[in-house]
Amino acid sequence: MSSKIALQPVDSVSITTLVDNYFDLLLTDQGPAKRVGLPTTETPRVAAAAVEEGKTPDTPLAEHGFSAMITLTSNGREHRVLFDTGMSPDGLVENMRRLGQSPKDLEAIVLSHGHLDHTTGMDGLMRTLGPANLPVFLHPEAWSRRRLVLPGREPLELPTPSKSAIKGAGFEIIEEKQPSFLLDGSLLITGEVDRTTEFEKGMPIQQAWRNGEWQPDPLVLDDQAAILNVRGKGLVVITGCGHAGIVNILRYARKLTGIERVYAVLGGFHLGYPFDVVIPQVCDALAELDPQVIVPAHCTGWKAVHALAARFPNAFIQNSVGTRFEL
């Protein structure tokens, strides 16, 4: 891409984790991360016959999936965009309820890619919102029928998101392969990410149903990220799984915008087995990019999370459902 995209700076951004693989009530505030904290007398209760009081705090739940609320402030106005929707039909809407977030405040939904752990929560949103005429932004490949081919076991076909169901529920489907703007040029969706590193090879175990047969689909071309430019700080990048490669994504964000400084990166880095072999290369490349805030979530994997925490002790922040990052 020869010309840079003029990403409008925002005054601030708050990113609230609504769905993630991990939840910890004992985590305390850390820099930009504001935690749920221990229950108080004002925390809502839910019925529980197994305890003497008959009620227990109604705290958020974790699941294998990802979703985040992006709240940006620009020119004195707040805007809310949902990035991904988690894996279970009701996990997202239930955690939104527990965290005091209303789906009715959303202006748009962005789906990072078509895998079930990022799209299935649309089910709960469809039932909660009804005919909302809310735009849903995604790559056209997100509707692909897919399966995973794992050594030593039968191929595992993945549930496929239903375009007809989502459109039938009143949502406006917007498909785009190229970069696209939301909110008057203040939020940028990458579209397909340039693959420039030698070590980030996508998802070799994935196949897609095309032309009447299963074909290799390692690139996961629908994998896209969200980018903001926080005034005076630099780029904030939110990923879903990061199938395109977290380094590829950050380099592409800089290429698209012409902004060199990566301030924060949050989301899935997809470095669990068998992708953990590239953790050292990823850490070396991140050191060159020098983000001030690194929040590996969801599918990053235990080994990678610990490697990142050790390599970047001042930038690393443990994610947890309900954490609000004020950037």
Task: Describe the 3D structure.
The chain is built from 7 helices and 21 strands. It is α/β, with parallel strands linked by helices and 327 residues long. 18% of the residues lie in helices and 28% in strands. The mean pLDDT is 96. Strands 3-21-2-6-7-8-9-12 form an 8-stranded mixed beta sheet. Strands 1, 13, 14, 17, 18, 19 and 20 form a 7-stranded mixed beta sheet that branches. The radius of gyration is 19 Å and the shape is globular. α5 (246-257) packs parallel to α6 (279-289). The chain has helices at 91-98, 116-119, 122-129, 163-168, 246-257, 279-289, 302-311, and strands at residues 9-10, 12-19, 33-34, 45-47, 55-57, 67-74, 77-83, 108-110, 135-138, 146-148, 156-157, 172-175, 180-182, 187-189, 206-210, 213-216, 226-230, 234-239, 262-268, 293-297, 324-326. The protein has a single domain, classed as Ribonuclease Z/Hydroxyacylglutathione hydrolase-like (Metallo-beta-lactamase, Chain A), CATH 3.60.15.10.
